[in-house]
């Protein structure tokens, strides 16, 4: 009975580690791990008794994650700058006729 229970516990730990590592790569690094790094992380998870906080800390403080966050921040800042630039039609007076009205006026006068 002890051997069966031990086997179930080992299998449970393997499955939990596999899922946790897969999700950590997906969430913190936004990618699928290659086979070698996946096996290495699962092995570490199984044999070093890492808790979920340990995994989260390891992945979130990795250089790859920090670089990804910096890139995302740069893109968001660039998008914000573009949104703040007024469009050409607002700068040219904005209260005159709309483009549609101008087009209709040209068609009826021509």
UniProtKB/TrEMBL annotation:
A GO biological process held by the record: visual perception
Database matches in InterPro entries: IMPG (IPR039861)
Ranges for region Disordered: 76-110
Acidic residues bias locations: 77-86
Designated name of the protein: Interphotoreceptor matrix proteoglycan 1a
């Amino acid at each position: 009975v002890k051997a069966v229970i031990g086997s179930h516990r080992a299998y449970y730990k393997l499955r939990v580690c596999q899922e946790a590592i897969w999700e950590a790569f997906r969430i913190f690094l936004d990618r699928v791990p290659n086979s070698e790094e996946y096996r290495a992380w699962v092995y570490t998870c199984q044999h070093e008794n890492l808790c979920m906080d340990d995994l989260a800390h390891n992945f979130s403080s990795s250089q790859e994650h920090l670089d990804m966050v910096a890139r995302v921040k740069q893109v968001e800042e660039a998008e914000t700058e573009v949104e703040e630039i007024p469009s050409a039609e607002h700068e040219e007076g904005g209260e005159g006729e709309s483009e549609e009205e101008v087009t209709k006026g040209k068609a009826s006068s021509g």
